[in-house]
Amino acid sequence: MTDTAQPCDIPVYVVVPPRVLLLDVAGPIEVLRKANLEQKTVRFSATYIGPSATVGSSIGLAVTGVAALPERLPDQALVVIAGSADAPMENNRPWDEEERAAQAAIVTWLKRAIRPGVRLASICSGALLAAEAGMLDGRECTTHHGCMEDLSRLAPTARIRDNRLYVEDGERLTSAGITAGIDLMLHIVAEAAGHACALAVARYLVVYLRRGGSDPQLSPWLEGRNHIHPAIHRVQDAVAADPSRDWSVASLARLSGASPRNLSRLFNEHTGMSVTDFVNRMRVALARDMLAGSRLDMEAVAMRAGFGSARQLRRAWNRLHDSPPSAARTKPAVVS
């Protein structure tokens, strides 16, 4: 997505339950705040809602100014349900009737308010409220590892995935414990505002763009970016911005401020691949996008992606994919 695209507003409603885990709110919404600063085509707005205007948090700090649960949500809204702490720092006691009533009010509201066209994302134990409202029935989902049994009980038809940072099933998105909410929101930002924006936000927050053991393969535009070395990021940003350019290790070394030998060593150390491998991955990713969205023949795609010939493209492609390049033409073609 580029800054020349039509501006898009995404309203985000953050459900604040009793005993809210503060990081479940602060982490994901900080991602959105920074995403707003990184680009101008997508604007995320956050409204904090719940059954109570003031809520106690997991660390004893009160959250105030919480708006009432709205009667109706706008189209394309994103609802984020934060999790709760069983044992807050300043309130390690059993749940009382008022807190239980607040949870029940959230469940009732979810049943009424969530409709097609409204996405629902849960952070940590927030999945339990979504499950109790029937939002996860028959869906793939996940939650904090300590809540798996409760989730199974509340959503017996759900396909619960463990050892996952987050799971997306249509308009239902669920994440694992606490900081995984940041990973989920980075994923949402990447879809809405582009991978470059998500990368910039992740680097600002000094977090990895991670994935669990059985997560879908990470986008090739994000592979090898789980590090915080500024010189390597500078090289990767340059290649990703123009993969078809005639990049050599020497030219990239000058860009990084390192010698070619030192750049090669640092690149392998921090990305797990060589400089040449990274360049070819970017070119294959660009070729894949062109194959999916144009009627260009294979030779033209290869040349525009930076390969000398279709044969070179196929050779690089086969190192990364089991299926041939022609299999990428799965979307309806458009005139280039």
Automatic annotation (TrEMBL):
Name all HTH araC/xylS-type domain ranges: 233-331
The record, for SMART domains, names:
HTH_ARAC
Keyword Lipid biosynthesis belongs to the record: no
> Which keywords are on file for this protein?
Transcription, Transcription regulation
Q: Which InterPro entries would you find in this protein's record?
A: Class_I_gatase-like (IPR029062), DJ-1/PfpI (IPR002818), Homeodomain-like_sf (IPR009057), HTH_AraC (IPR018060), INH-QAR (IPR052158)
- Molecular function in Gene Ontology: DNA-binding transcription factor activity; sequence-specific DNA binding
- What Pfam families does the annotation carry? DJ-1_PfpI (PF01965), HTH_18 (PF12833)
For the keyword Electron transport, the answer is no
- Database matches in PROSITE patterns: HTH_ARAC_FAMILY_2 (PS01124)
Cross-referenced SUPFAM superfamilies: Class I glutamine amidotransferase-like (SSF52317), Homeodomain-like (SSF46689)
Any idea what this protein is called?
AraC family transcriptional regulator
